[in-house]
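Hi everyone, sorry if this is the wrong subforum. Our group has a chain we'd like a structural model of before ordering constructs, and none of us has done structure prediction before. Sequence below.
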Amino acid sequence: MRDDFFSTIGEIIKYGGSTFAALVAMSIYMATDGFFVGNWVGVDGLEAMALIFPITMVIAAVGVLFETGGSAVVSEQIGAGKKQLAEKIIRSNYLCAAIIGVTVAVVGNIFIEPLLGLLVDNSSEQHITDLAVDFLRITLCGAPFLITVYMTGAFMRCVEKPEHVFFLVGSSNLVNIILDALFIIVFGWGMTGAAVATVIAQISGAVIAFWYFKYSRQKFSSSAGFASFAYIFKEIKIGAGFAVATVMTSCIEYFLNAVVLQYDAAELLAMVTVSNIILSFVFLPLNGLDTGIQPLVSRLYAAHQEQHCLRVMRYGFFLTVVLTFAIYAVLMIFTEEMTRLFVETNTPITPEMIIFLRAMFVLQPFVGLYTWLSGLMAALEDEWRNLVISLVPLVVQVPLIWFLPKILPIEYISLNYSINDVAEAAVAFILIRSLFKEKGISFKKIFHAR
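Answer:
Right subforum, don't worry. Here is the predicted structure as tokens:
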């Protein structure tokens, strides 16, 4: 029993630990622009980034779609001993990344200005839109490279090299930090400098991805060609829930920005940016742990190693709980200190700003439960339950964003996130019980597995 415990924890650390570290690095990547913009461009830059965030989330949704679905499908083929087919599926994914990324870049550049113009109709705030448009016109060009980096991280885990994800993301992160400092502080390029640094960092990640599967020890075998698009459609079905959830987040953020501006609380837009950065340190590490374990669960389940699979599920849950509450304690105790990292020294942090952030974090532990449950659904190749969960924010958050400012001060509008965290966890729990019943699994089996 003791040997099983340590060997299983070792496997989880191998698969989930490195991905966890990689997504912590990605959190830092996301925070880098906010840090340099907030301290050297100012609050206007942070407000512009709040307008930018919903659009960047749409690009991330494509990456999440193929990261989640591709990881499950490729892991399944490797577990079944079909390595050459797995390699062809990986090639097909990269082809999709190029096509979709270019399409997003072109369409995005056409519509971003009118889309952001709908939010800001006050001439005194037009400069915020101008900053956001300048940033987006450049960063949208990096869409194919960003999607490629997402995919490569997933496939590195599939070929049992999860530790390489950290080097992939960490290298891109380092490039972004160095170039942000150079372009924003030294050259004084402001938001444009942050955008150029971001795209160059994404390109460097794509170059590493190409080298990794072309020339490293993980290079493709002598087999050539692409897999049937039936596998891509299967990936889309598996990853659709996560992708739709990301798009929902984008739409909800857009609506939140509109309501905040309607109540003449533009200064809270800066807190929207700060909260998005801070929450990336919540969601990405948790997602890194559970997504990192996902290929292991998929492979063990496909190989009919039931007890081993159940142990991984159980210990993954315990690690998620510990991580969730550790993050929660930091969020609630050091809220003001974390905010100050992204706001220039001569700008006061008001009580309303702190209330906005803490109201968003107050029920954050439920995020850990939801992340673990949704990760298991993806690992077991569920096709519709994660999609159902992804619609919960639309039902819960949109009405709350409209209703809360009518009964509470505007800074309490962020309570919509906390209430939604509970709703998503509850729906995920209800739905996964029916999935477990179909698969012959139960929570009792998971928590009493040998």
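For your construct planning: The chain has a mean pLDDT of 82. The CA atoms of residues 118 and 272 lie 18 Å apart.
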